């Protein structure tokens, strides 16, 4: 609960949420770049095998 004026609390809350969203976006962007790099290195055949292994592991 905020005891400050409502507009100040809302402003801080909005800024905090924006920062959290930007951090998450940056993390997601880094993960995507890593996945794209690995895909370029390994090619389609290896990627399909990895997907099959993950699918089989999740079904057991």
Please characterize this protein's 3D structure.
The chain has 60 residues and is mainly α. The protein has one domain. Helix content is 90%, strand content 0%. It has 1 helix and no strands. It has one helix spanning 6-59. The chain is elongated. It starts with 5 loop residues before the first helix and ends with a helix. The model has no long low-confidence stretch (mean pLDDT 84).
Cα-to-Cα separation, first versus last residue: 47 Å
Mean of the pLDDT scores?
84
Specify the overall morphology.
elongated
Query: Which residue ranges are poorly predicted, with pLDDT under 50 across at least 5 consecutive positions?
Result: none
Number of domains: 1
Please render the helix and strand layout as text:
Blueprint: H1 6-59
Q: How would you sum up this structure in a few lines?
A:
With 60 residues, the chain is mostly helical. Helices cover 90% and strands 0% of the residues.
Notable features of this structure?
elongated, mainly alpha, 60 residues
